[in-house]
Design brief:
single chain; two-stranded antiparallel sheet; 3 helices; 7 strands; about 35% helix; about 35% strand
Length: about 110
């Protein structure tokens, strides 16, 4: 547990947080955060903060996103580059066969 700016102890949680970007409310599910029951302040660990997920959701026109999906996509992009296979609504984008095969191997290990 960590200390809040009000001096109370914060509780570690994984849940839904909301952020507003350009007047639009975006919900981020499965977001690790600290919550203070006294002042209701929410804070984040520097390793897990919602900015990237919020911006991505906003750019895609979504009102909500899953932080775990965002992190998974980010890690795969770092490992395989931006052209990794992406499947959305049952349609896949072009990809290199060897890279997709590696991706499926990685998914099986998870």
């Amino acid at each position: 547990m960590s200390k809040c700016i009000c001096g109370s102890t914060e509780e570690y949680k994984i849940g839904t947080v909301s952020r507003i970007i350009k007047g639009r409310k975006i919900l981020i599910h499965n977001m690790p955060h600290y919550y203070c029951n006294k002042c209701e302040e929410i804070s984040f660990n520097l390793n897990h903060e919602p900015t990237g997920a919020v911006v991505e959701a906003y750019r895609k026109g979504w009102n909500e996103a899953d932080y775990l999906d965002y992190i998974e996509d980010k890690l795969l992009a770092e490992k395989y580059g931006e052209d990794v296979i992406k499947v959305e609504n049952g349609e896949s984008e072009p990809y290199e066969f060897e890279r997709a095969e590696d991706l499926f191997k990685l998914i099986k290990l998870m």
